[in-house]
Amino acid sequence: MKSIFNLYYKNLFLTSRLFTGLGCAVVLYLLSFFFPWLGDIPSLFFFTLVLLFVIDIWMLYRLPKGIFARRHAPERLSNGDDNEIGIYVENFYPFNISVGIIDEIPHQFQKRDVWFKTGLISRQHKLLNYQLRPTRRGEYEFGAIRVYVQSPIGLINRRYNIEQVETLPVYPSFLQMRKYELMAISNRLNEYGIKKIRRLGNSMEFEQIKNYVAGDDYRTLNWKASARRGDLMVNNYTDEKSQHVYCVIDKSRSMKMPFDGLSLLDYAINASLVLSSVALLKEDKAGLITISEKKGAIIPAERRPTQLNKIMEVLYKEKTRYLETNMELLYTTIRGTLKQRSLVVFFTNFESMSALQRQLPFLKRIAKFHLLVVVFFENTELKKLSEQPAENVEGIYIKTVAEKFAYEKKLIVKELARYGIQSILSTPQNLTVNTINRYLELKARQKI
């Protein structure tokens, strides 16, 4: 009895068309007092409306399951990217229907307007797509799918509750990683802003001896092989491979700052994942170190097929902490982990020269043994303030302070360069491109 009550009452919704009809019936009854010639027209109209109401209920409830719906979602979502979600819906009724669909998306998105309206003829099915952009890593729980069905009469809606509760993990931006992977494989990275670096000289890793063709460097002629073959032969060299590339990610409070929904830590994680992927494609070894006031994850540099998945699983769980980075611990960790000269890309953030001075002694020590690239962020909001015209005294003060902080960022770059430490000052949205640019440049110049 209770299930019947739930079926016919809790899932039945009256439409505006029914209320409009009832309002018209009330108006006709009122007019019949002043215009007796209306006679039984108000009653006839009302009972016709009641009859249509009963027929509408019978049409929608005569089938126990007149509609089918299912959510199509990937196994995991990509952080900071537009992820496509689909809702498949099929009509089992023998007549055309109008359908309204509510998908209960995770509470992290703070959206309650994921509503779709469509029409379906008998036995028709559709796939409705929409996109979600998560801005935090972790688990996202989807709820039920609510489908509201309306017959051609349109006096009521019947609701179907499709319980499809599922939890999807949000990983670092693997969609961005795949995009750059495809570009690297096809040597078209410059289409995404990656510079084409002019190669200076040849590496010393010998590959083969081949016949001379026009355009080959005559300095690579192999005279002994040419004498034996009676034809010009040249030595062919290839890029040095299996260099160690380590991404070191600062998890301290300086990386908590948000930009466009993502924290600086998330931007660093996404860039690290893409850089590791490109390095592996270039046949280098990729590794990872995370650090805050205590030692975080350490993945030694390898070139195994499972290395990228291992890095992704570690990055998935990383969170910012609320203390400053222990730079002495970072130095001892790098000295203990890195057994040969490596490229160390350190993702951190400096807002002032004093913040750099506290860490500079340890950065200089790391740079003695490895090729160190310090990556930190432009404060785009301060940059906007410094570019706005000042309209009053307060505006002049704000503009001056913003310009001071922006100038300090440039001074930090020069200060690092004084000690032979390379740096990248980048806006968060251009971080990945700028980091890959520097990696390819260093590789082309045979710095690693």
UniProtKB/TrEMBL annotation:
Protein name: DUF58 domain-containing protein
Database matches in Pfam families: DUF58
Organism field: Mucilaginibacter paludis DSM 18603
Lineage: Bacteria, Pseudomonadati, Bacteroidota, Sphingobacteriia, Sphingobacteriales
Record field: transmembrane: 12-35, 41-61
Classification via InterPro entries: DUF58, vWFA_dom_sf
Domain (DUF58): residue spans on this chain: 209-359
Keywords associated with the record: Membrane, Transmembrane, Transmembrane helix
